[in-house]
Amino acid sequence: MNFRYEPYEELEVDDRYKDIIPKIEVELSGEENKTVPKTIDTEEKLWHEMKSFDDVKKEELEEQVSTIENYTEDTQQEVKHHKCTHCTYQSTFKSIMDKHINNVHLGIKSHKCTLCDFKTARKSYLKDHMNSKHLGIKNHKCNQCDYQASQKNTLKKHITTVHLGIKNHKCTQCDYQTNEKSKLEIHIDGVHLGLRKHKCNQCDYQSSQKSALTKHINIIHLGIKSHKCGQCDFQTTKKSSLDRHIEGVHLGIKNYKCTQCDYQTTDKNKLQTHLDGVHLGIKDHKCSHCDFQSTHKSSLKEHIDVIHLGIKNYKCKHCDYAAYHKSNFTIHMNSVHLNIKGFNCSHCDYQASRKSCVKKHINNVHFGIKNHKCSQCDYQATKKCFVESHMRNEHPNIKK
């Protein structure tokens, strides 16, 4: 009986031992070659399996066991001789260092998705991308909530951040904390150093995050709104915006309430904007063409588009009406041409195509609330146009 040893690559062993575990082939006279694969986790199992073959020399066994022991000791005392010349990264192997430089500093991404534009430097990342994005496979599930992930590391980050509240990477200049070192570096570059490495090739937009630039291009230049409401025509670029829309419009849930008036909203930022603009009179966004001011940047943009640029993309085929917003155009069609008035007054037969019109009607007619006041005298009115008319007639010399 003769024995021949060759490297056996399919052994289910620790990656560190794969190159040194032998493949045992037993050649029996008069019989075909037989391959005997063995799963070896430790040197004890290796010794036990090899001892079953009587003709194997003890010296060969001892040499292989010694190789495993020496390899383990060397691994535990790894010396990272290869240092990156661009950052602080270090590696034990030159091949890993070459991959680091190609991936991180040269941006080489050789693995490409055949279904979308995704590119990555690692084959395993491409596999995770295919499973999660295109196949919907998420094998790693959180045992504390419904969260699922395609990568074990992603699930680990979710648990440590969401459920354990662990954020090991802290900014030394502010209170910002995160569970990822890369996010901390992006925060420092963008917030404290003002670095905007990612620039849009169609406008002046710049960002410290590549993902933010991608969103900007999709939203502003491509007009992509991937999140759509299943109950109306509402579309948005963010899932969080869609969730707020459903809660506020279709479920009537508005968790953020103003303490000084009846204003309610689904968005915390909108409540703060309301407080700043309505109750504190703060209007940071000013028009460069006239005296218009607004608490919302979007309102300023709308003002410039409509008043100064005359942009009204939604035009009625039945009359000269044109609108900047699709929602206003829909209301016009329903109320003027289709005579649809879906909002009714609870005190009388008044109907309107807008909820805000019914609210104003109730405040003005039934409650007698006069929110519009003259700045020169005690005159008050239920409508702004009444005050403007009063100013023209009673105070013609006063400039607005």
Overview of this protein structure:
This protein starts with a strand and ends in a 6-residue tail after the last helix. With 400 residues, it is of the alpha+beta class. The chain has 13 helices and 25 strands. The protein has a three-stranded antiparallel sheet with strand order 1-2-3, with no helix packed on it. The protein has a two-stranded antiparallel ribbon with strand order 4-5. A two-stranded antiparallel sheet has the order 6-7. The chain is elongated. Helix 1 runs antiparallel to helix 2 (58-76). Pfam families: zf-C2H2, zf-H2C2_5. Keywords: DNA-binding, Metal-binding, Nucleus, Repeat, Transcription, Transcription regulation, Zinc, Zinc-finger. Residues 111-139, 140-168, 169-197, 198-226, 227-255, 256-284, 285-313, 314-342, 343-371 form the C2H2-type domain. Belongs to the krueppel C2H2-type zinc-finger protein family.
Please write out the topology.
Blueprint: E1 2-7, E2 22-27, E3 34-35, H1 43-51, H2 58-76, E4 82-83, E5 90-91, H3 94-105, E6 111-112, E7 119-120, H4 123-134, E8 140-141, E9 148-149, H5 152-163, E10 169-170, E11 177-178, H6 181-192, E12 198-199, E13 206-207, H7 210-221, E14 227-228, E15 235-236, H8 239-250, E16 256-257, E17 264-265, H9 268-279, E18 285-286, E19 293-294, H10 297-308, E20 314-315, E21 322-323, H11 326-337, E22 343-344, E23 351-352, H12 355-366, E24 372-373, E25 380-381, H13 384-394
